[in-house]
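Dear support,

Our group has been running a series of protein-ligand predictions, and this particular one with D-malate is the one our PI (initials K.S.) wants archived with full inputs and outputs. We had some confusion internally about which version of the output was final, so please treat the block below as the authoritative record. The input we submitted was:
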Amino acid sequence: MVDNFSGPALSSAPGARPHPAIVMADEVADSAADQLQQEMGAEIRRVAGADRAGVLRALMEADPVALLVRSATAVDAELLRAAPQLRVVGRAGVGVDNINIPACTARGVAVVNTPLANSHSAAEHTIGLLLAVARNLAVADSSLRAGQWRRSELTGVEIYSKTVGIIGFGTIGRLVARRLQAFDARVIANDPYIDPDSAARAGVELVSKEELMRSADVVALHVPKTPETTGMVDARLIALAKPGQILINAARGGLIDDAALANSIRSSDGPHRGAGIDVWDNEPDVHSPLLELPQVVATPHLGAATFEAQERVGREVAGYIAAVLRGERVPTAVNAADLYR
Ligand code: MLT
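Confirmed final output from the archive:
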């Protein structure tokens, strides 16, 4: 949603180039580039977001008006200094923990993201990880390919009639709850920002984190990464877990104490049966003790990686970028409240 903004449209800005430069770091759907080329005649330069030196070089050479990223590019003050004409940072996805929002606001740079466009894919990936852990699918697949028939060892557990605890009852948490209710699971949740009546209308009881850990057979994390949530699933909470618990994290790396969870899975008296983990600290250079355990199903940040979600995300973020460059206000911009004061 956009409305008028007093900022100048790009074409009327002094010294404006006929073909505005846009740097796309990370893999973003072609639909975003196509739309920006068609609507604005933009010149797109692509670069790998994890290649810090490459991103800085691309920004200095192209001097872009827009930068489009996913989670691999750390958008900080140094990066902003390399792009003096930058007007907008587009995040093709939800999480903005890789973007220094105050630094963008101080420079008058809008930060736009797509909070809903990949939610269904993220919710479906959570369910996929859960079923894979509950039914030992990764080990079943790799052992059969290795010529082993380990049928009796690979007995799993059902989701039916289990208690599932969701930490973070926002858009994705709610989609996951609905899907798990279809398995006839009881769903409880923890979220200090949600009104208990609204959770009750979704058939979900709000409880404390401690109670959730004690009573849930499955715990799924759906919180953003903030100072409040970083490391929230620590050794203390892990020790409280109900025996046999499965923990799923398709939200953000850094929320869980990986070493404590690995110990809980590994040791015979530890409460955890296994875990499904899609997101990691320090991606893509992942070093976690969880990767050594067969009870853990690990994926490389694939929650939003579907053709449909990427297409939707690409179109939506390109629309917001074009609006900012036309001089319009984007009220859903992450820093709208401070930027449009
Ligand atoms: C997101 O925050 O939307 C996810 O990290 C998706 C992604 O960028 O791949």
